[in-house]
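Customer ticket, subject: "Can you confirm the structure for Alpha/beta hydrolase?"

Message body: Hello, I'm evaluating your service for our small team and ran a test protein. I'd like someone to confirm that this is what the system normally returns, since I don't have a reference to compare against.
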Amino acid sequence: MSDSPANHNHPVVFIHSLWLHCSSCDPWLEKFRSHGCTAIAPAWPGDGATAGNELFKRWSIPGSGRPLLEDAAADLFQNSPAAVDTHKAERGPLVLTSGTEDNTAPRIVVEQTFKLYADNPKSVADYHELEGREHSLTIDKGWDDVADVTLRWLSSKGC
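Agent reply: Thanks for trying us out. I re-ran your input and got the following:
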């Protein structure tokens, strides 16, 4: 791929989904690093090496599901702990990518999320929809095509 954001070397942060381990981003990290990017995929707090198994066994109690409920209801309550400030001026460029066959995060949900971020005139937000792709487009066969789309987008933004 000829387009490469290597000249600018801004960090690229991959946030994996709730049900995936940060290692699911490893192929992406390798690809982006090979194009000169500083790429990271942080683990969820308390995941993996960030917390000892013994401490977990000794001190953990079953979760209430409250964080998931708060996240699901964030749009309904202005002061929700899960609310996101989409008009925050200081943030990097954002690209939302979805597949046309995604039934987990349907097109309308991703488009609405994009519109929230795109309404901020001080930031860059774009939306890419990939024909025939499902929800797991970042780990399915052809993930590298999705990565190439993202690398080209980053390059076009000077990142």
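A couple of notes from the result: The chain has one domain: 5-61+90-156. Residues 97 and 120 are 19 Å apart (CA to CA). Feel free to reply with more questions.
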